[in-house]
Amino acid sequence: MKRREFIALVGGAAAWPIAVRAQQSAMPVIGLLTSRAPGDAPHFMAAFRQGLKSTGFVEGQNVSIEYRFGEDRNERLPALAADLVHRQVTVIAAQTTQRRLRHRQRPRPFRLSSK
Q1: What pLDDT does 44 receive?
Q2: In-domain check, residue 110
Q3: Are 32 and 66 in contact (CB under 8 A)?
Q4: Phi first, then psi: what are they for 60, rounded to 5°?
Q5: 30 backbone dihedrals φ, ψ, rounded to 5°
Q6: What is the largest CA-CA distance in the chain?
Q7: pLDDT digits over 66-106, tens only?
Q8: How far apart are the C-alpha atoms of 52 and 29, rounded to whole Å?
Q9: Which end of the chain has the smaller Cβ count within 10 Å, N or C?
Q10: How far apart are CA 68 and CA 46, in angstroms?
Q11: Rounded to two decimals, what is the model's pTM?
Q12: DSSP letter for each residue of 17-77
């Protein structure tokens, strides 16, 4: 082994633990996807942050949150979810209301025709 190769090997080995520590200390990112508009449910946002805090996660300190709002338009949700996946967030938390779920499960009305 030549001297230059040896120095490069030793230098790379010395820098490797620093690089590993830098990757491990990256802040996790939660993608929060909701069908609501930003100001619609402040109690939900407060409860979400409180739940995170009770498990040791505080927004801006040791976790980051990417918010995506459907603005009461459920057809926007797939594109918003795809954006979070593209950004490679650590986890996606999704929220919708029971009223919206019931509405989607309700059969659509139809007319019977005698023609």
Answers
A1: 85
A2: no
A3: yes
A4: 90, -20
A5: -100, 130
A6: 93
A7: 999 988 888 888 899 999 999 999 999 988 755 555 555 55
A8: 12
A9: C
A10: 16
A11: 0.62
A12: HHHHHHHHTSPPEEEEEESS-TTS-HHHHHHHHHHHHHTT--BTTTBEEEEEE-TT-GGGH
Amino acid making up residue 38: P
18 within some domain: no
| Residue 56 tokens, joined | 């040791």
Please write the tens of the pLDDT for every residue from 25-66.
Answer: 589 999 999 988 888 878 888 998 999 999 999 999 999 999
42 assigned to some structural domain = yes
In a domain, 114, yes or no: no
CA distance 103 to 72: 13
Residue 48: give the domain boundaries: 27-104
